[in-house]
Design a protein that fits this description.
It is globular, with a radius of gyration of 19 Å. It has two domains: 84 residues, no CATH class; 31 residues, no CATH class. Strand 3 and strand 4 form a beta hairpin. By secondary structure, the chain is α+β, with helices and mostly antiparallel strands. The chain starts with a strand and ends in a 7-residue tail after the last strand. The chain has five helices and four strands. Helices cover 38% and strands 10% of the residues.
Amino acid sequence: MNIHKVALFHEKPTLSIAQEYVKNPFMLWNIGMFCAPVSRFLQEAELHCPAIVSGVRSALYDPHYYSAIPAESIDKAIIEKSEKVWVLPMDFMWYDVGNVGVFLSLKEQEKSEQNNVIWLMFPTNWLLLLMLIIYAL
């Protein structure tokens, strides 16, 4: 495994910066998958975004506090600021499913290409489980 320390994490760069990144053979693209023990995420959150941590803790006891929690992605709030980010480069197909239309088109594509999709329907949520085998090296 070739795990590397991340020198710079830049979430949603401008178009001109992204074009420069694409030209650089050492740049990688994040797909939003982060792995760490919960304790590490909490330590980094307490260090880099204490207002969010405080707001979430308050909202656990009184939901009225929820609307006061600063709205910031994990990428911006923690990952861009942390010195404890490492990357394992991977090469696999990925779709950024940002809306229902994309999700449904991918569902149809998967359905036609493979027969390994399981749908679980709950009153308020749909969960799609793709039966994929991942080998750890």
